[in-house]
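thread from #wetlab-drylab

HS: before we spend reagent money on co-crystallization trials with adenosine monophosphate, can we at least see a predicted complex? here's what I'd submit
DV: go for it
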Amino acid sequence: MEFQEFNLHPVIAASIKEAGYVTPTPIQQQAIPTVMQGRDVMGLAQTGTGKTAAFALPILHRLMEGPRGRVRALIVAPTRELAEQIHEAFVTLGKQTRLKSVTVYGGVNVNPQIHALRTGVEIVVACPGRLLDHIGQGTIDLSGLEVLVLDEADQMFDMGFLPDIRRILGHIPAKRQTLLFSATMPPGINKLAQEILTNPVTVQVGNTAPPVTVSHALYPVEQHLKTALLLELLQHTDTDSVLIFTRTKHRAKRLGEQLEKAGYKAASLQGNLSQNRRQAALDGFRDGTYQILVATDIAARGIDVSQISHVVNYDIPDTPEAYIHRIGRTGRAAKSGDAFTMVCSEDAIMVRTIEKKLGATLERRTIDDFDYTIPAPKKDAEFARPPREPRPTRKPAAAKRSPGPSINPFKTDHPGTKPAGRPQQGRPAAAGGATKPVFNSSRRGK
Ligand code: AMP
């Protein structure tokens, strides 16, 4: 199948060519004609499948006709980085269309957003909180909205954005085309989809299994030895770009610093960073300035970085779906990749759950020269403690990072103020309360 078959507007077809896209990806093949027909779509696909262009291309095509200078398409996304990525796709693919797109998210000055909205844009890519601020302040007019896209809906649900989404829905025309994209379909999203989509067409690309190009292994280790084991692993492994996941922002920051101290070009990506520093970390990882990026789920999910040779789960994820998403960050486009997961004894239940989902037993590995018997130093209680992330507390954290109410009447809104990862579902009840993990599985890999 070729892009010409969609009969997209010639200026859009030219941008597709310029972007170097030759063949539509499976999600594009399914979604583009359906969206062009004006149908509502339920898209089950994750980042890396080409889903952004799957909705951006038919939206641009639609907007070529009809009024200019008013908001006609709204894309709601969970994180600022994802919003930027979507906006960039609209800019690239809509280069010659003279259609204008703006991003709307918290943590940055609101005035340029107000200015852009006042000057007249057709496409708004927004995170929920700041969008609601604009709605509340009357700085955005959504009365002419024709298409709504909810991207990474499961992620927004996890981050506690559902009430915000519902509020947004109350401010946009009921008669519209709605597209909902989600990597997974938990009951909450299913319910939302049933409520907001009219006679939708479901399009789906396989995302229930990790890429076959990824080899994965578990590294049983005590909590306090994780960093030492990681350094050992990095030293003995031929790595290109390494993405490391931690459960909390604090752990991402601290591990990033430890790796830097150990001589690695490493950066951390977590919500406590300013937007500029987050972007610098991401850009540096993309262009190879940083070989290692340490991130929380929320900071990293949805970010399109190819060329990742290794994914390391410094902390095991909360759900098997999150495991599959994480390790799917490597082994892209038929490249091979490795995924290492460090596990403590309290992770046993999650390990079993993941193995059940994968339908396979994961290999346990130990490193021969590594001393697994070193006791926990007394002072390292904080890092040795099983990681926990606070429950959603968007407002207080946001207030702290706000540029200042005297300049900016809007509160901030970004992923850093949300809990990293899904709620603690599926984790053993003892994990959060255990005083010190007991390691007893080092021999499993021998
Ligand atoms: P996404 O899943 O939307 O984040 O897209 C992942 C990456 O695939 C992005 O870098 C896109 O530019 C790229 N991409 C999207 N569609 C195509 C296509 N048909 N051919 C080649 N690359 C594509």
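DV: The chain is about 40% helix and 15% strand.
HS: ok that's useful, forwarding to the group
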